[in-house]
Amino acid sequence: MIKEDFFGAIADLEKEKGISAESLIETLENALASAYKKNTGDSIANVKIKINPEKQTVKFYAVKNIVEEVTDPATEISLEEARLTKKSYKAGDLYETEFAPLKFGRIAAQTAKQVVMQKIREAERDSTMAEFEDKENDIQTVTVRRIEGKNVYVEIGDNGQLEGLMLPQDQVPGETYKVNDKIKVYVKKIRNDGRNSTILVSRSAPGFVRKLFEKEVPEIKDGVVEIKAIAREAGQRTKMAIYSNDKNVDALGACVGMRGMRVNAVVSELNGEKIDIILWSEDPLEFIA
User: Fold this and answer.
1) What is the DSSP letter of 102?
2) Segments forming the whole domain that contains residue 98
3) Which H or E run includes 212?
Protein backbone atom coordinates (compact mmCIF):
# COMPACT_ATOMS: atom_id res chain seq x y z
CA MET A 1 0.00 0.00 0.00
CA ILE A 2 2.68 2.47 1.11
CA LYS A 3 6.15 1.54 -0.06
CA GLU A 4 8.84 0.75 2.49
CA ASP A 5 11.04 3.63 1.32
CA PHE A 6 8.31 5.98 2.52
CA PHE A 7 9.15 5.15 6.12
CA GLY A 8 12.82 5.88 5.46
CA ALA A 9 11.78 9.20 3.93
CA ILE A 10 10.02 10.19 7.17
CA ALA A 11 13.34 10.14 9.04
CA ASP A 12 15.05 12.03 6.21
CA LEU A 13 12.38 14.73 6.22
CA GLU A 14 12.74 15.21 9.96
CA LYS A 15 16.51 15.53 9.62
CA GLU A 16 16.73 17.65 6.48
CA LYS A 17 13.55 19.75 6.60
CA GLY A 18 12.88 19.83 10.33
CA ILE A 19 9.47 18.18 9.80
CA SER A 20 8.29 16.39 12.92
CA ALA A 21 7.84 12.66 12.19
CA GLU A 22 5.08 12.52 14.79
CA SER A 23 3.23 15.41 13.17
CA LEU A 24 3.64 13.94 9.69
CA ILE A 25 2.34 10.53 10.77
CA GLU A 26 -0.65 12.04 12.58
CA THR A 27 -1.55 14.13 9.52
CA LEU A 28 -1.16 11.12 7.24
CA GLU A 29 -3.33 8.92 9.46
CA ASN A 30 -6.14 11.47 9.38
CA ALA A 31 -5.75 12.02 5.63
CA LEU A 32 -5.84 8.29 4.86
CA ALA A 33 -8.95 7.81 7.00
CA SER A 34 -10.67 10.67 5.23
CA ALA A 35 -9.58 9.43 1.79
CA TYR A 36 -10.80 5.91 2.59
CA LYS A 37 -14.30 7.06 3.56
CA LYS A 38 -14.48 9.40 0.57
CA ASN A 39 -13.22 7.07 -2.16
CA THR A 40 -14.23 3.51 -1.25
CA GLY A 41 -17.93 3.84 -0.48
CA ASP A 42 -17.42 1.35 2.33
CA SER A 43 -20.25 1.00 4.85
CA ILE A 44 -17.85 1.39 7.79
CA ALA A 45 -18.88 4.61 9.49
CA ASN A 46 -15.76 5.34 11.52
CA VAL A 47 -12.30 4.40 10.33
CA LYS A 48 -9.06 4.77 12.27
CA ILE A 49 -5.61 4.24 10.82
CA LYS A 50 -2.46 3.48 12.79
CA ILE A 51 0.96 3.91 11.20
CA ASN A 52 3.98 2.36 12.93
CA PRO A 53 7.23 3.58 11.30
CA GLU A 54 9.36 1.24 13.40
CA LYS A 55 7.48 -1.85 12.24
CA GLN A 56 6.74 -0.19 8.87
CA THR A 57 3.07 -1.11 9.11
CA VAL A 58 -0.18 0.61 8.22
CA LYS A 59 -3.26 -0.88 9.88
CA PHE A 60 -6.94 -0.03 9.38
CA TYR A 61 -9.53 -0.30 12.13
CA ALA A 62 -13.31 -0.01 12.17
CA VAL A 63 -14.24 1.94 15.30
CA LYS A 64 -17.48 1.71 17.26
CA ASN A 65 -18.68 3.18 20.54
CA ILE A 66 -19.44 0.68 23.30
CA VAL A 67 -22.93 1.27 24.71
CA GLU A 68 -25.37 -0.48 27.02
CA GLU A 69 -28.07 -0.51 24.33
CA VAL A 70 -27.36 -0.21 20.60
CA THR A 71 -29.44 2.32 18.65
CA ASP A 72 -27.11 2.71 15.63
CA PRO A 73 -25.39 -0.56 14.62
CA ALA A 74 -23.11 1.27 12.17
CA THR A 75 -21.40 3.24 14.95
CA GLU A 76 -22.20 1.30 18.13
CA ILE A 77 -21.61 -2.11 19.66
CA SER A 78 -23.22 -3.48 22.82
CA LEU A 79 -21.16 -3.82 25.98
CA GLU A 80 -22.17 -7.48 26.14
CA GLU A 81 -20.81 -8.22 22.67
CA ALA A 82 -17.63 -6.19 23.22
CA ARG A 83 -16.83 -8.10 26.40
CA LEU A 84 -16.74 -11.32 24.41
CA THR A 85 -13.46 -9.94 23.06
CA LYS A 86 -12.12 -8.24 26.23
CA LYS A 87 -13.79 -8.45 29.63
CA SER A 88 -12.35 -5.11 30.82
CA TYR A 89 -14.39 -3.09 28.31
CA LYS A 90 -16.90 -0.62 29.76
CA ALA A 91 -19.57 1.64 28.32
CA GLY A 92 -18.03 4.69 26.65
CA ASP A 93 -14.92 2.86 25.44
CA LEU A 94 -14.04 2.55 21.76
CA TYR A 95 -14.13 -0.87 20.14
CA GLU A 96 -11.61 -1.29 17.32
CA THR A 97 -11.64 -4.11 14.80
CA GLU A 98 -8.78 -4.43 12.33
CA PHE A 99 -9.75 -4.99 8.70
CA ALA A 100 -7.99 -5.20 5.34
CA PRO A 101 -9.04 -2.41 2.96
CA LEU A 102 -9.80 -3.40 -0.63
CA LYS A 103 -8.81 -1.45 -3.74
CA PHE A 104 -7.23 1.31 -1.72
CA GLY A 105 -3.51 0.93 -2.51
CA ARG A 106 -3.30 3.54 -5.27
CA ILE A 107 -5.36 6.10 -3.35
CA ALA A 108 -3.26 5.50 -0.22
CA ALA A 109 -0.04 6.11 -2.13
CA GLN A 110 -1.41 9.31 -3.70
CA THR A 111 -2.64 10.55 -0.31
CA ALA A 112 0.73 9.87 1.29
CA LYS A 113 2.49 11.81 -1.46
CA GLN A 114 0.10 14.76 -1.11
CA VAL A 115 0.56 14.88 2.67
CA VAL A 116 4.35 14.79 2.39
CA MET A 117 4.37 17.56 -0.23
CA GLN A 118 2.03 19.64 1.92
CA LYS A 119 4.28 19.20 4.94
CA ILE A 120 7.36 20.14 2.91
CA ARG A 121 5.67 23.31 1.67
CA GLU A 122 4.59 24.19 5.21
CA ALA A 123 8.12 23.61 6.53
CA GLU A 124 9.65 25.75 3.79
CA ARG A 125 7.09 28.48 4.39
CA ASP A 126 7.70 28.41 8.16
CA SER A 127 11.46 28.52 7.60
CA THR A 128 11.13 31.45 5.20
CA MET A 129 8.76 33.20 7.61
CA ALA A 130 11.24 32.77 10.47
CA GLU A 131 14.00 34.29 8.34
CA PHE A 132 11.67 37.10 7.28
CA GLU A 133 10.52 38.15 10.76
CA ASP A 134 13.35 40.68 11.13
CA LYS A 135 12.13 42.46 7.97
CA GLU A 136 9.26 44.15 9.80
CA ASN A 137 9.45 47.94 9.34
CA ASP A 138 11.62 47.51 6.26
CA ILE A 139 11.09 47.94 2.53
CA GLN A 140 10.71 44.97 0.18
CA THR A 141 10.28 44.72 -3.57
CA VAL A 142 7.32 42.43 -4.22
CA THR A 143 5.20 41.14 -7.09
CA VAL A 144 1.44 41.61 -7.22
CA ARG A 145 0.00 38.08 -7.15
CA ARG A 146 -3.73 38.75 -7.26
CA ILE A 147 -6.38 41.34 -6.49
CA GLU A 148 -9.54 40.39 -4.62
CA GLY A 149 -12.05 43.17 -4.20
CA LYS A 150 -10.08 46.09 -2.79
CA ASN A 151 -7.33 43.90 -1.30
CA VAL A 152 -4.00 43.46 -3.08
CA TYR A 153 -2.01 40.26 -2.45
CA VAL A 154 1.70 40.24 -3.18
CA GLU A 155 4.47 37.62 -3.42
CA ILE A 156 7.33 38.16 -1.00
CA GLY A 157 10.73 36.51 -0.85
CA ASP A 158 13.15 35.14 -3.42
CA ASN A 159 10.85 32.28 -4.42
CA GLY A 160 7.54 33.98 -3.70
CA GLN A 161 6.87 31.53 -0.86
CA LEU A 162 5.28 34.18 1.34
CA GLU A 163 2.18 36.22 0.67
CA GLY A 164 1.64 39.77 1.82
CA LEU A 165 -1.64 41.64 2.06
CA MET A 166 -2.07 45.32 1.22
CA LEU A 167 -5.39 46.49 2.63
CA PRO A 168 -7.27 49.45 1.09
CA GLN A 169 -6.05 51.81 3.84
CA ASP A 170 -2.46 50.85 3.01
CA GLN A 171 -2.84 51.73 -0.65
CA VAL A 172 -2.14 55.18 -2.05
CA PRO A 173 -5.17 56.97 -3.54
CA GLY A 174 -4.67 57.34 -7.27
CA GLU A 175 -2.25 54.44 -7.61
CA THR A 176 -3.33 51.37 -9.59
CA TYR A 177 -1.94 47.88 -9.10
CA LYS A 178 -1.95 45.12 -11.71
CA VAL A 179 -1.10 41.42 -11.47
CA ASN A 180 2.66 40.83 -12.03
CA ASP A 181 3.53 44.46 -11.24
CA LYS A 182 6.73 44.79 -9.21
CA ILE A 183 6.34 47.40 -6.49
CA LYS A 184 8.13 48.53 -3.35
CA VAL A 185 6.19 48.18 -0.10
CA TYR A 186 6.74 48.82 3.59
CA VAL A 187 6.43 45.71 5.78
CA LYS A 188 4.00 47.05 8.32
CA LYS A 189 3.21 44.01 10.47
CA ILE A 190 4.18 40.33 10.63
CA ARG A 191 1.95 37.93 12.53
CA ASN A 192 3.46 34.44 12.59
CA ASP A 193 0.68 32.06 13.65
CA GLY A 194 1.68 28.97 11.71
CA ARG A 195 -0.69 28.33 8.82
CA ASN A 196 -2.55 31.57 9.56
CA SER A 197 0.55 33.77 9.32
CA THR A 198 -0.09 37.23 7.92
CA ILE A 199 2.24 39.85 6.48
CA LEU A 200 0.65 43.28 6.18
CA VAL A 201 2.37 45.61 3.72
CA SER A 202 1.77 49.27 2.93
CA ARG A 203 2.60 52.05 0.51
CA SER A 204 0.68 54.70 2.42
CA ALA A 205 2.36 54.40 5.82
CA PRO A 206 4.65 57.22 7.01
CA GLY A 207 7.21 54.50 7.71
CA PHE A 208 7.46 53.89 3.96
CA VAL A 209 8.74 57.45 3.45
CA ARG A 210 11.10 57.12 6.42
CA LYS A 211 12.67 53.95 5.02
CA LEU A 212 12.97 55.42 1.52
CA PHE A 213 14.98 58.31 2.95
CA GLU A 214 17.11 55.92 5.00
CA LYS A 215 18.06 54.11 1.81
CA GLU A 216 18.79 57.31 -0.12
CA VAL A 217 20.52 59.31 2.63
CA PRO A 218 23.57 57.64 4.26
CA GLU A 219 23.59 60.29 7.01
CA ILE A 220 20.14 59.10 8.14
CA LYS A 221 21.13 55.46 8.03
CA ASP A 222 24.26 56.23 10.08
CA GLY A 223 22.28 58.23 12.66
CA VAL A 224 24.01 61.52 11.97
CA VAL A 225 20.74 62.99 10.72
CA GLU A 226 17.53 61.98 12.48
CA ILE A 227 13.97 61.98 11.21
CA LYS A 228 12.13 63.33 14.23
CA ALA A 229 8.58 63.30 12.88
CA ILE A 230 6.62 62.54 9.72
CA ALA A 231 3.08 63.57 8.83
CA ARG A 232 1.70 62.13 5.64
CA GLU A 233 -1.35 62.47 3.45
CA ALA A 234 -0.54 59.62 1.10
CA GLY A 235 -0.58 60.58 -2.55
CA GLN A 236 -0.68 64.29 -1.76
CA ARG A 237 1.96 65.56 0.64
CA THR A 238 4.47 64.47 3.28
CA LYS A 239 5.95 66.78 5.88
CA MET A 240 9.14 65.58 7.55
CA ALA A 241 11.03 67.15 10.44
CA ILE A 242 14.75 66.39 10.61
CA TYR A 243 17.62 67.15 12.98
CA SER A 244 21.41 66.93 12.69
CA ASN A 245 23.37 65.40 15.56
CA ASP A 246 26.55 66.87 14.06
CA LYS A 247 26.78 70.65 13.81
CA ASN A 248 29.06 70.22 10.82
CA VAL A 249 26.42 68.29 8.85
CA ASP A 250 23.65 70.20 7.06
CA ALA A 251 20.55 68.08 7.63
CA LEU A 252 18.53 69.73 4.85
CA GLY A 253 21.38 69.46 2.37
CA ALA A 254 21.91 65.80 3.23
CA CYS A 255 18.26 64.94 2.60
CA VAL A 256 17.89 66.98 -0.56
CA GLY A 257 21.21 65.87 -2.08
CA MET A 258 23.23 67.43 -4.86
CA ARG A 259 20.83 69.03 -7.33
CA GLY A 260 17.96 67.43 -5.44
CA MET A 261 19.05 63.94 -6.41
CA ARG A 262 18.17 62.24 -3.10
CA VAL A 263 14.80 63.79 -2.46
CA ASN A 264 13.83 63.39 -6.12
CA ALA A 265 14.51 59.66 -5.92
CA VAL A 266 12.01 59.43 -3.05
CA VAL A 267 9.47 61.64 -4.85
CA SER A 268 9.78 59.43 -7.94
CA GLU A 269 9.01 56.28 -5.91
CA LEU A 270 6.00 58.10 -4.42
CA ASN A 271 4.78 59.01 -7.92
CA GLY A 272 5.20 62.76 -7.51
CA GLU A 273 3.97 63.16 -3.94
CA LYS A 274 5.13 66.53 -2.56
CA ILE A 275 7.66 66.40 0.27
CA ASP A 276 8.28 69.27 2.67
CA ILE A 277 11.46 68.91 4.72
CA ILE A 278 11.81 71.18 7.75
CA LEU A 279 14.31 71.49 10.56
CA TRP A 280 13.20 70.19 13.93
CA SER A 281 13.87 72.15 17.11
CA GLU A 282 13.50 71.30 20.79
CA ASP A 283 11.87 74.72 21.19
CA PRO A 284 8.21 74.25 20.12
CA LEU A 285 7.83 77.92 19.22
CA GLU A 286 10.89 77.85 16.99
CA PHE A 287 9.78 74.53 15.47
CA ILE A 288 6.29 75.82 14.63
CA ALA A 289 7.71 79.03 13.23
Assistant:
1) S
2) 4-128
3) helix 206-216
